[in-house]
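Re-running the complex after MR caught last week's input typo. The corrected sequence lines follow. Everything else is unchanged.
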Amino acid sequence: MLDSLKDIIRKSSIHACLVSTGGCNGCDIEIVALLSPRYDLEQYGIYFHNNPREADVILIAGAVTEQWREKLQRIYAKAPEPKVVVAIGNCPLSGDVFNQEGSSVYAPVSDFIPVDAEVSGCPPRPSEILAAILAVGPDAIAAKGRLAKGDQKAEASEEAELNQKAEASQKGGEEKV
Amino acid sequence: MILPIGPVHPALKEPLRLKLKTRGERVLEAEIDYGYVHRGIERVMKGKTWQKGIYLSERVCGICSYIHTQTFAETFERIAGERAPLRAQFLRVLTNELDRIQSHLLANSTYFKILEHETLFMYMLYLREPIMDAIELLTGNRVNMGWNVVGGVKMDVNQSHLDSILKIIQNLEDEYDRYVEMFDHGPMIGLRSHDVGKMTREEAIKARAVGPIGRASGLKHDLREQHHTYKDHFDWKVIWRKDQDNYARTMNRFDEITESIKLIKQVINNLPEGEVRKQINIPAGYAEWRNEAPRGEVTYMIETNGNLIKNVSIRTPSIMNIDACAKYMLKDVATVADALATYASVDPCIACTERVMIVDETGKGQEYVYPDYKIPYLKDKTED
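Corrected-run output:
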């Protein structure tokens, strides 16, 4: 019961943190554009806070440069446990144009920390970034929160039921409004 | 006490470490650590054709990505001793000014965000989105446009595109004064901005501050005055102010947007007919070209070996501006919050600055690609 309640709350309040690990800035400004009234990130319950200690979703934008190789893991460790990493743009996926002979980037980012979702594009459109966060964010955070508790297998069927109930109650709430 | 801020911090969008030396709430000194975004673009660019180089130069910086490609293309045109067709030059001015408008709106929005004035922050982003639409309509992309080539621009425009852009610009102009007045006459936001982060004209010259930051301190210097297209075909004026503080820098950007709107209207009304691209054969040679980016002057120094880039060196404005901020503006600031606001008011662009990594504390000076070219801020540091 408490878990399902937590799930509902977790799904509707996601704190996002942007870690720019050495790109061209283009993805960063597309994420800032998400805050604009046109896309309005906050209507989906996502709060862009830029603080890894409070983050549920870590957005990685940029090929990993020399300075970030160790710091990235430290920042990942700082985020509290139910956490999701979304890699934004081509840079964290492959290094894009920077990953050539003579450069100092160490892409892909999945060598350093586990990545849950990837959005390609140079840079991706704001709507694509938003879709990726919403596709992977709420459910993964709820599921990971339960996994962290341990003995997940026994509770799996129970949780599915609870999930359905939670969804039903959410829908009911929406209808009332 | 030394207060470290960054590289990931609620107030910063880009990675940078700001060390503030404080006594109580008062900020005495500031020091800045760079190096989080160094990718080695110049080194990758060497030995490649311009078709690959222009792609890389666009990715030096995402916010002012347009002006980098224009400067790159114009440097190559200068090596060949030719100029792009007149229609292409006009279209370059059009895109450059659209890019300047979106960059200045983004810079001011960041400043308001750090001042915690959420309303104006939202309004700035609300004004910016139609401009991004105009850029997308013209070039096909929102951020990295891929619009310039050596010898012109990639595509021609229709009259219908120009009409839509004119409509967007007209809408911006109609609404614009209201938002500027909100900042200009707002008592609280005025209190936070006036007389904070002062840099005198002499200090600006010493720190080589460029762009709106230099112009807000009384340096009347805009490289568009020297550019052949702007000089010959357009009627506009350089915006500069004398009040030297955060308010002046923000207001300077607001006023430059008004000038950009004028320039865009002139381009659309007087666009000449003709080609937009011509073939240019590139000889071996060396050229240097400067342009006015939204943040100041951007310099490209390119040496070619026939069709290949032999050496390239890029100098962007943010390095001087951030240095001026750390050295002169963040000196004896009343509060830490004001120090962060001052930092945001210089419109820092970290991706720009970190294409060159210079690690030198002896004052000897690292050997550079072009020995004649001295790095001004490095020399300054050693004198003190």
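None of the earlier attempt is carried over here. Residues 86-114 of chain B form the longest helix (29 residues). DSSP finds 15 helices and eight strands in chain B.
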